[in-house]
Design a protein that fits this description.
about 325 residues; alpha+beta; 60s Ribosomal Protein L30, Chain: A; Phosphoribosyl-aminoimidazole Synthetase, Chain A, domain 2; 6-stranded mixed beta sheet; 10 helices; nucleotide-binding
Length: about 325
């Protein structure tokens, strides 16, 4: 199977209509049409075998996750998705792999109304690179730089299960079979919080998605906003499975785990009920986990309000 047959068979969906895409696959460039009064938002993420996913991952789940991690960036900015581009390097043109990968990819794409508008394929070590494009009303994009002293700090969903699954894969921890299935699902099938991100426009003052660990990702918000924060460790939302592990492992998974793809965001106290309503309207759990302060730095506090000695380093592709 050659390159163009591969594209036609697995990725070209013909003239399927998509908002914002005038012309997709089949020309040298895609033709996109922005909505008047809206701004384009663009993000790129690369997934490399052995670095971001295991060689044993189910291809359908890999297709899902490859798009999900990019859609999560749009969610963090309050954007609605419009188009994406796929650059795919493959060791060989394996029809079974491609069928599963495309199925997972397009199931998530269709669920969120985003179209594949182009990309590239080549032979090489397995590498998936996706660029997503979305849009938001002008002046309503959620950024990392808007947090203000006094804001409440919120997190969507639960944290830590993906890192717990990774520790099982690494052989440093073990779980009963049914529990491993659940945390592995969190690791391999993250759900981008697009509806929540859009619902938070005009409510949240800043936002970021948790891809490299809560401590590190929140640190990016604090640096961009010129503020500090306190996080209440006992308030951090976690599954019953993670809550049943020892405290040190919980700290590692909750604060430095990564791969959660939940949103951490800030909002003024007067928007407290609006945040809760946004969560309820989108069917997303939201939890207040701390506050923003003027004093720089990030402290994690125990139930008595005392700082805890915890690891806050985030994942770094060139150090981890």
């Amino acid at each position: 199977m050659g390159e163009f047959e591969l594209i036609r068979r697995f990725f070209d969906r013909g003239d399927r209509a998509a908002d914002g895409v005038v012309k997709g696959i089949g020309d040298d460039c895609a033709v996109l049409a922005p909505t008047p009064g809206w701004q384009w938002l663009v993000s790129t993420d690369m997934l490399v075998e052995g670095r971001h996913f295991l060689s044993t991952v189910d291809p359908e789940r890999l297709g899902h996750k490859a798009l999900a991690v990019n859609l999560s960036d749009l969610a963090a900015c309050g954007a609605r998705p419009r188009a994406f581009f796929l650059a795919l390097a493959l060791p060989r043109a394996d029809a079974k792999f491609l069928e599963g990968f495309a199925r997972g990819l397009f199931a998530l794409a269709d669920a969120h109304g985003i179209a594949l508008a182009g990309g590239d394929t080549t032979a090489g070590p397995l590498n998936v690179c996706i660029t997503v494009m979305g849009e938001a009303p002008q002046g309503q994009v959620l950024l990392r730089s808007g947090a203000r002293a006094g804001d409440e700090l919120w997190v969507s969903g639960t944290l830590g299960d993906a890192r717990l699954a990774l520790e099982v894969f690494r052989g440093t921890h073990s779980l009963p079979g049914d529990q491993f299935v659940q945390v592995r699902r969190a690791m391999e099938l993250p759900q981008p919080r697009l509806a929540l991100g859009q619902a938070l426009r005009g409510i949240a003052s800043s936002a970021i998605d948790v891809s490299d660990g809560l401590g590190g990702d929140l640190g990016h918000v604090l640096k961009a906003s010129g503020v500090g924060a306190e996080v209440y460790f006992n308030a951090l939302p976690r599954s019953a499975i993670l809550a049943g592990q020892d405290l040190m492992l919980q700290q590692q998974c909750l604060l430095a785990g990564g791969d959660d793809y939940e949103l951490v965001f800030t909002a003024a106290p007067e928007h407290h009920e609006a945040v809760k309503d946004a969560g309820a309207r989108t069917g997303t759990r939201v939890t207040r986990v701390g506050r923003i302060r003027t004093e720089p730095g990030l402290d994690v506090l125990d139930s008595d309000g005392a700082p805890m000695a915890v690891l806050l380093a985030s994942f770094d592709h060139f150090k981890s």
